[in-house]
TrEMBL record:
PANTHER family: PTHR33376, SIALIC ACID-BINDING PERIPLASMIC PROTEIN SIAP. It holds the Pfam family DctP. Coiled coil: none annotated. This is TRAP transporter substrate-binding protein DctP. Residues 1-31 form the signal peptide. One of its GO terms (biological process) is transmembrane transport.
Amino acid sequence: MTVLSRRSLLQASLAGAAVAGFGLSSARAQADKPLLRMSAPLTPTDQRAIGLEKHFGPAVAGFATYQPHYNATLFKQGTELEAIARGNLEMSITSAQELATLIPAWSIFTAGYLLRDAEHQKKVFASDLMDGLKKTTEDKLGVKLLSVMYLGRRQLNLRTEKEIKTPEDLAGMKLRMPNSEAWLFLGKALGANPLPMAFTEIYTALQTGAIDGQDNPLPTDKDSKFYEVTKQIVLTSHLVDQNYLAFSKKVWDKFTPDQQATVQKAADAAAEAARQAQLKLEDDLVDFFKQQGLKVYAPDVAAFRKKVQADYLTSKFAKDWPAGLVDKINAIQ
């Protein structure tokens, strides 16, 4: 039987206290880090989610804790910007369509056939043309837009078999769109009957016939398995779709300049990684969908472009666009 001396007991007690003290100190240090909760409707396997977890989370770990919430489980899709403005959320991935509901000038980036490709999209966001819109967003919403995220070229994905060549072929077709005026206008400009619906409801709606189709980039169609309940993809490429990494300005202002630089660098790295992965996926997925039994083909894109552009230029949205901005965007090479 081992008998511990009073000295041994005292040493053991002190050692235990030291370990406990270290644990408390570590927990306190962790608690002192700001929690950066990111709420978005995307899935964990989305390239934007992967890019953020691989590049953003680890980069800021020294002074903040990144905590993603997917599938709109923390905040309902479309409410994230208001949550950031209220101080109830730190980060989200938002769209020009959502921004346009609060700041109408953003509707310029909801227009079909405006941005040419992923590189043009990136250059436009980085240009001084965006300074006014970015500042307005900070001033009115308390939201800082860190980086642009390439979502892909949006294509029509339909459960029907009717061949689509021109906008007229979409007449009467129930096309799911996100629930904002800008999104619904785009659906109508394409020639369809737009139906507002949350992203999380699309699969079941396609499966039951509540909608005839939806529009998303090809990687999203694969990631969310929409190909399981659809029969064709029409390569309209009507929108070079973009998201923005939205960040609380209040939280941003509490960071030191070095920490702000780290956050910005991490956001750009995550966006670039997601962009390159998304571009590669787009290149690979046409064959994948054909192998799944879907028809994949290009319509008369010129006919779609002509109608969509004409509808936008004569719409109420155009009056909110900054003067000359369309021409300046077109001039960026």
